[in-house]
Task: inverse folding
């Protein structure tokens, strides 16, 4: 009796959540500490608007909405509402503190086109 081993196929799954770099997580944690509250989370949303059709929103929020996707990064919770989640799956948030750029940046593989300001995409 012989058995032939079938090679297992490995299926790469697309990321389903947003990622936060260590530097961005440290910055978010510091900003929340400055607010003096422990109930805030970073909410990331996609809204209609901007020169390319959609724009990002990042803000602190204490609310919990039905269908929120919550991801914890070393004690920092990032929340994405269920309507924005498909647009942000696999996106990465970083924080730049350079002479030529300062603030949070979003690298989104789902964005087909973006505008010069970097805040809007299609």
Result:
């Amino acid at each position: 009796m012989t058995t032939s081993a079938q090679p297992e196929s490995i299926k790469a799954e697309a990321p389903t959540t947003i990622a936060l770099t260590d530097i961005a997580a440290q910055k978010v944690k510091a900003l929340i500490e400055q607010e003096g509250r422990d109930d805030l989370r970073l909410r990331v949303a996609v809204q209609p608007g901007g020169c390319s059709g959609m724009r990002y929103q990042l803000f602190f929020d204490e609310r919990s909405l039905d269908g929120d996707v919550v991801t914890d990064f070393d004690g920092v919770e990032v929340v994405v509402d269920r309507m924005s989640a498909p647009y942000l799956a696999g996106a990465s948030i970083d924080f730049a503190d350079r002479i030529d750029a300062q603030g949070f940046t979003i690298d989104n593989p789902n964005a087909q086109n973006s505008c010069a300001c970097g805040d809007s995409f299609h």
Q: What stands out?
A: The chain is about 15% helix and 35% strand. The radius of gyration is 18 Å.
